[in-house]
Specification:
Mean pLDDT: 89
Oligomer: single chain
Strand content: 15-25%
CATH architecture of the largest domain: Orthogonal Bundle
Distance between the termini: 38 Å
CATH class of the largest domain: Mainly Alpha
Radius of gyration: 17 Å
Largest sheet: 3 strands, antiparallel
Low-confidence stretches: none
Helix content: 40-55%
Length: 147
Amino acid sequence: MTTTKSPDARVAAILDQLAARGMRRTSARQAILEALFAAESHVTAEDIAVEVHRRFPSVDVSTVYRTLDTLEQLGIIDHTHLAHGPAIFHLADDDHQHLVCERCGRVEEVAPEKLEPFLEALRAEFDFDVDRRHFALVGICAACRDR
């Protein structure tokens, strides 16, 4: 359920949410949120730190990691591991699953309802609920397979 608010309005709403929980509104937190919203694809903590550091050289990478952790605990963002690389981050309301080619690294986003029959089969057969937010399905894309 992606919202239609502008990125600035969404950043302000998240900062309001943090303030309502007793957390301070800081320029570093705002810059981190703006970097997340400005990203055209998934970003790593290091990507965000580089962007934030351009505007605020005194912000340490540990601040970025702590803020990302807080945002994830609040359900605002999710992290996913794509194969063996670093975790990538995206907004939690942008729900999708990742398919990653282990040869070329191409990432494809899949709507969650496409996986529902598989997840339902796991529930029925193993009484197990998968938390699919933190992992990618790794395989070989058609282009690499055809080479």
